[in-house]
Amino acid sequence: MLPIRQxxxxxxxxxxxxxxxxxxxxxxxxxxxxxxxxxxxxxxWGLGVFKERFQRRYPVNTDAIQLIGEVEQxxxxxHGGRLPCDVLSFWCWQRLRRISDRRTFxxxxxxxxxxxxxxxxKDEAWIKEQFWAxxxxxxxxxxxxxxxxxxxxxxxDCVPVLQSLRDWLAKRKNGQVY
Length: 178
Prior knowledge:
By secondary structure, the protein is mostly helical. The chain has one domain. 68% of the residues lie in helices and 0% in strands. α2 (30-56) packs antiparallel against α3 and α2 packs antiparallel against α4 (84-96). The longest helix has 27 residues, at 30-56. The chain is elongated. The model has no long low-confidence stretch (mean pLDDT 79).
């Protein structure tokens, strides 16, 4: 009798969430989560593009490659061992498949942590402030992603990127990033 009662309760909650709560919740929608995921992916993509460009330079700029690795590792450390775009991608897919948050997250603390990650990465102004050289329009293609075409970085292009990443790591160390 207990499994049937649990099934009925789950069924009622699912229908309630689907018809009553849909669109009336304070939680972000699939599209909002997807926008935050895209913002995080653009930064991750940009770090990869610049790492590749620094590897193509002659002589290879090993300090810059190491700095980008430190930033990537710091992002992983701040988001439970994964990149923020991967964390948001998981939640985005759960929302797309209409899996409720109570089934996605084991505890309310997990959900609150995910909402905090979403709030952080949905804010374009915050991203532009933190990663100002990567979000610079000179480095972006028409879709808003860092331009990955084969071209080399000049010394003038390297300086702002490295300064931006050093600033971000210093702010993170002082607790001013999040």
